[in-house]
Each structure stands twice: as C-alpha cells, then as structure tokens.
C-alpha cells in the first residue's frame, strides 16, 4: 500500500483540518477544478442544470442525485453551484441551498433556476412542500450568485392550489425581457404553464396561462431570447421523431415573437441522452452559445445518478438551432477576453490582402490590421466575411518578394447569423505555376474564440492562400490571419 511521506501526510491532514473548520463554520469549500471533460464533475452526481453568466463566470445551478445504486427513485436534498471561467474546467462550490432553505418544505430538491434582478439573485426551485399536494415552486434570494440564499417568500410561489397550475408544479424557468418584465414558465406531466412575475420577483402578476404550440411538452422548460426571437426549449418524450422509448426524452424547442407565445414548434435540438430524463439550459458565454444538460455517463451513473455535461450549441442563419453533438470531451476552453496572438514574426502586415469575395460591409483589411479579438463575435477591429457566398472561398497574402513561411494562425469570425465557423480550411501557396497545398500541413483547426495554429514545412513564396470551406448553408469570415516566418 502506498504511504505518503510524513511531510506530505502532515500537509494533507492540515488541509483536511482547515476544511473541517470551515465546514463547521458554515462555509463551503470549493473542490479543486475538475479536468475538462463531460460530465463536467464526477465527484458527486449532479442533475437538472441551469446556467447563468455573471461577469466572466458561468454558474451552473444543479441538484444533487444521492440515490444509492439500485434505488429506482430520486434522492435529492440539495442544490449545488458549479462555476467556470472558460466553460471547460469546472469547480464545484458545494451546496448553496437545500430543502431546509424552505421551512415549509420537506423533500425533493428537483430542478431549479437562478434569475438576477436589481443586484439580487432569485433561486426558483421545485420542492416538495408539506402542504396538500406534491411539488411546489419555491423561491430563495441571495446577494451574490453563490448566496447565501434564504427563503424569499415564506411559502410556495406556486402550489397545487394555484388556479390553473400544472399537474406537476416543477421545473421553473424565469426569463426577464428587455423591458424588465419577468416571466415564469414551469410544469411537468405534459402540463406547461406560464405567468408574469411582479417586479419583486416573488409574486405572480396576473393569471396562470397555458402556452400554446409547445408540441409534445413533457417537462423541463428553458426560455431565452436571441436576436429578438424568443426560444422555449423543453423535454418531450413522444415517439414521433423524439425518442423510440417514451421512458426517455429529447429536447424540442419552439420560437415566438412575444414572450407568452403563441409558440411555433421547430424540432429536436438535443436527442435522447443516456439517462431517461433530459433536462437542459442554454446560455451565451464569451461570444459562444452553450447547452448544459445531464446524462448518466459518470462512472456508476444511472437514471437517478445523473451528471451535468456541457456542449457547444450552434444556430443556423435563419435562427433555427442545429442538433447538438453530444461529446465526451466537452467544449474547448473559452476564457474570453483578448488572448494575444501566438509569439513569432508575423509577415501579414507587410502583405497585400485579397480575396475571392468580401461582403460590401466587411473588409479584407481586417485580416492583417493587428486587432486582438476578445472573441469570435468581436468586430471592433473590422471583420472579413463572405456572406452570402457558400462553399469554398479564399483569402490571400501577396508580398513583393518571396518570403519564407512555415506557420499561420487564424482567428475565425462567427456572427451567429450567416457567418459561422468553417467546416474546414487548407493553406496553399504559389509554387511558380499554380496554387498547391503547403507541404506537411498539420490539421487546420476551426475553433471559435481563439487563435488556431497550422504548421507546415517552410515554403518560400510571394503568395500564400487560405482556402476556407463553409458549413452547409453558411458563409465564413476571419477577424485575423497571421503568417509567420520560421
Ligand atoms: O430531477 C428531478 C426531475 O427529473 C426534474 O425536476 C425533471 O426535470 C427531471 O430531470
């Protein structure tokens, strides 16, 4: 058996003693960040994630699945907060609310969501009240995204006695529109409901309505707005294009031009996951859209031992959502903010830039004007884009005399409309009689929100070309293209 040396053991036990003291004082000690992968944390089981971006941090509010192996029911008593500043590595900040936060409740810390308002954070929860009926919607409030949180109302916001409430009052999602009006959507057992919230965020403002057009709604609504369009994503469990076994669920979504609908069903965005339940949230962080959901993929996982995962979410030019690719790796790190280009001598500023096509309102000068993008949507230092061209387009650098080049870096432009990250790219050069691929080219990466580096054998040329192939139905663009001398 491995025994740590005395000194290391002393440090270890000193750490434990500190943690015990802090826990005794009521503080929550964050776990060390988990390595980037899906599920995002595996030291506890986590479910029903609700993402929220505040400043440079993505917070994910999630329940904790505590069911022992073989238990066929939810055992959920607390809600935890997971945090990331790059959407790839995550730190568990522990339980920040639990069933005991609501003195009128007794069990079942089911799905929840946090909504900010006037510097306070309102945590809407599904919880089993001790009154008549089963599940209620509670609301706690805190002065920071990590709390501490206390009951904000002294009783349920929604219960079985609320007129026209759902057959199962769970899974709240709160959305605040640009005019400050907040809306609560919730419901399970095929019964979706909505109501306005008063500006105090703890009272319904007017009647509970039954939204129309949410085809095959089962549970887990999530509402957001993008480019003036309202989106409502939800779990459905029909066998007509969603799942083949109605014990499972997919995420369907609908769009509307006003926050209470009527909604137009748009299809499936997230296929069945490995757990029977499917619960997800959508958020934009550092210029990139993400979907946060749960599955049963952690070691020892199952339908009542679920874990939160994060993946990229992409939109088509017409605002529809592309089907999510569920990964085991999770998204690439997206720390946001200007990162600075890779080191080296960049020959691009001394070149003349040309292209097969540039949109009249964009500029090929963007390629080599030395801008340092904060993210792929940052056009503050000009952007090159070729919308509405599709297929393969090219950009080119020409020097008056031959230059030696062996590396490029691209910072792709993605306006989340017609311009998206490319499907692929290839570096080519003029060999005196035609354009040919540079020799020994490494992969040509197409990640957003970062510099992508492609290396190759040194070429001596007056013309370097980057051929860029768009994803179907989309165009491409660049914020910066750097070409390095060896
Ligand atoms: O986690 C308990 C329940 O399972 C949630 O409230 C539902 O959305 C489903 O994920």
Describe the structure.
The protein has one helix and 26 strands. It is mostly beta strands and 486 residues long. The protein has two domains: 308 residues, 5 Propeller (Tachylectin-2, Chain A); 137 residues, Galactose-binding domain-like (Jelly Rolls), CATH 2.60.120. The strands form six sheets. Strands 20, 21, 22, 23, 24, 25 and 26 form a seven-stranded antiparallel β-sheet that branches. Strands 5, 6, 7, 8 and 9 form a five-stranded antiparallel β-sheet that branches. Strands 1-2-3-4 form a four-stranded antiparallel β-sheet, with no helix packed on it. A hairpin with a 5-residue loop joins β7 and β8. The longest helix is centred in the first third of the chain and has 19 residues. The N terminus is likely disordered. The structure holds beta-L-arabinofuranose (FUB). Beta-L-arabinofuranose (FUB) binds next to β1 and β13. Beta-L-arabinofuranose binds next to β1 and β13.
Question: For this structure, what is the CATH homologous superfamily of the largest domain?
Answer: Glycosyl hydrolase domain, family 43
H/E topology pattern: HEEEEEEEEEEEEEEEEEEEEEEEEEE
Average pLDDT taken over every residue: 92
Q: Main sheet, how many strands, which sense, barrel?
A: 7 strands, antiparallel
Keywords: Carbohydrate metabolism, Glycosidase, Hydrolase, Polysaccharide degradation, Xylan degradation
Site (Important for catalytic activity, responsible for pKa modulation of the active site Glu and correct orientation of both the proton donor and substrate): 171
Protein name: Glycosyl hydrolases family 43
GO molecular function, one term: hydrolase activity, hydrolyzing O-glycosyl compounds
């Amino acid at each position: 058996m491995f025994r740590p040396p005395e000194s290391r053991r002393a440090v270890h036990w000193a750490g434990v003693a500190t943690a015990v003291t802090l826990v005794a004082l009521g503080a929550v000690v964050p776990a060390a960040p988990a390595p980037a992968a899906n599920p995002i944390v595996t030291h506890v089981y986590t479910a029903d994630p609700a993402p929220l971006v505040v400043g440079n941090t993505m917070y994910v509010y999630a329940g904790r699945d505590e069911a022992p192996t073989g238990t066929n029911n939810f055992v959920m008593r607390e809600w935890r907060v997971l945090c990331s500043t790059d959407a790839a590595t995550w730190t568990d900040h522990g339980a920040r609310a639990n069933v005991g936060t609501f003195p009128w409740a007794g069990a079942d810390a089911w799905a929840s969501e946090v909504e900010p308002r006037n510097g306070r954070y309102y945590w809407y929860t599904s919880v089993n009240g001790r009154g008549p009926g089963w599940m209620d919607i509670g609301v706690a409030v805190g002065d920071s995204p990590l709390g501490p949180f206390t009951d904000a109302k002294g009783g349920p916001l929604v219960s079985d006695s609320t007129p026209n409430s759902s057959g199962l009052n769970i899974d709240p999602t709160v959305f605040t529109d640009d005019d400050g009006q907040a809306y609560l959507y919730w419901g399970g057992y095929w019964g979706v409901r909505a109501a306005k919230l008063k500006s105090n965020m703890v009272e319904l403002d007017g009647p509970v309505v039954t939204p129309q057009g949410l085809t095959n709604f089962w549970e887990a609504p999530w509402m957001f707005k993008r480019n003036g369009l309202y989106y409502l994503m939800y779990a459905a469990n029909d066998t007509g294009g969603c799942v083949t076994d109605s014990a499972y669920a997919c995420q369907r979504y609908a769009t509307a031009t006003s926050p209470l609908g009527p909604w137009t069903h748009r299809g499936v965005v997230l296929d069945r996951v490995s757990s029977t339940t499917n619960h997800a949230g959508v958020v934009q962080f550092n210029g990139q859209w993400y979907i946060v959901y749960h599955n049963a993929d952690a070691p020892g996982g199952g339908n009542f031992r679920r874990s939160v995962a994060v993946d990229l979410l992409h939109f088509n030019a017409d605002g529809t959502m592309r089907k999510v690719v569920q990964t085991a790796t999770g998204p690439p790190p997206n720390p946001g903010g200007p990162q600075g280009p890779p080191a080296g001598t960049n020959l691009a500023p001394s070149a003349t830039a040309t292209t097969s096509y540039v949109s009249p309102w964009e500029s090929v000068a963007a390629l080599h004007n030395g801008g340092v993008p904060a993210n792929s949507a940052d056009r503050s230092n000009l952007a090159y884009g070729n919308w509405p061209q599709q297929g393969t387009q090219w950009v080119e650098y020409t020097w008056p005399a031959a230059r030696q080049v062996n590396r490029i870096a691209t910072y792709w432009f993605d306006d989340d409309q017609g311009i998206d990250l490319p499907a692929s790219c290839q570096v080519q050069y003029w060999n005196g009689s035609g354009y040919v691929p540079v020799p020994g080219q490494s992969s040509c990466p197409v990640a957003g929100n970062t510099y992508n580096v492609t290396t190759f054998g040194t070429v001596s040329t007056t013309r370097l070309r980057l051929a860029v192939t768009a994803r179907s139905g989309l165009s491409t663009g660049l914020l910066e293209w750097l070409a390095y001398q060896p």
